Amino acid sequence: MNSHKDSNSTCNGHEHQHEHVAYSNTKKDGLTLAFWLNLFFSIIEVIGGILTNSTAIIADAFHDFMDAGAIGLAILMEKISGKKRTSNFSYGYKRFSLLSALGLSIFLLVGCITMLIAAYNSFINPKEVHSIGMLWLAVLGLAVNGFAFLRIKNGGDGHHHGHSHGGHNHNSQSIMLHLLEDVLGWAAVLIGSVVIYFTGWNWIDGVLTIGIALFIGFNASKNLVRTIKVMLQSVPENVNLHQLQTELQQIEGVTNIHDIHVWTLDGSYNVGSLHAVVSHTTVKSGQDILSDIIVVMQEYNIQHPTVQIETIDNQCQFLGC
């Protein structure tokens, strides 16, 4: 007996649909806001960086401009990922959002290299930095990026955790990571501008650039690895496969669980499949055992469970099949 059950079907259809639409619209609004803020603010940064002779600000302007393009791509991919399944894409288009997460991480790393080169040049050809201008740009940067971060974060929060669209997918996580890093980066620039004002140590501008680049590069690398692991269908971090198998084998009537696989489509919507061998002597029906298995799988945040019921006589010849 093969059975598939999508956990979303157990929810109240009408209410669930409205909640999902509201969630998607809020997240889309947050992404759109982040795009325009990054685009316009990068232009302000270029002008401000030139006027203040700040390498850190000019480097971050290029960084923000690249991210604006990446976020624009993310908005497009989010729209595509919401399309319904087709005969060619039987799981739907959810994984398309991973492409923008992958691209954003790569853009961040490229930006880090550019920032490091700019920092090196600032040491070779030092210039006087206008600390007051840096200070005001830092305050503006904190306000702009902090506001965008909160909008996207609040767009992903709520009571959806544990469901198919619970939490943030890798795409939104990548963008939130960038905005949070920018907030921390501007806080460092703010402190640096104060230090330069009182000491005249212009080389601090280059040091700030290197620190921001290394911090962003480290976190972008981690997000890149996470995204690649999803694309390679690794077991989701929030699913303990061994513990799941152990708990399933404790269900009354189940003698063995094998060929168990769990992966995620986009970092939040998990898919699982397994073979369950049932005993001839159990008083429970195959349907009851199947229901118990699906309940346990859903408790482990598997929204798309598929189960094949077998008996001792017709089970796989090799349990690792």
TrEMBL record:
It comes from the Bacteria. GO terms for molecular function: zinc ion transmembrane transporter activity. The keyword Nucleotidyltransferase does not apply. It is found in: Membrane. Signal peptide: none annotated. One of its GO terms (cellular component) is plasma membrane. The chain crosses the membrane at residues 33-51, 57-77, 98-120, 132-150, 183-201, 207-225. It is a multi-pass membrane protein. Residues 236-310 form the Cation efflux protein cytoplasmic domain. Keywords: Ion transport, Membrane, Transmembrane, Transmembrane helix, Transport, Zinc, Zinc transport. Residues 31-231 form the Cation efflux protein transmembrane domain. Belongs to the cation diffusion facilitator (CDF) transporter (TC 2.A.4) family. SLC30A subfamily. This is Cation diffusion facilitator family transporter. It comes from Imtechella halotolerans K1.
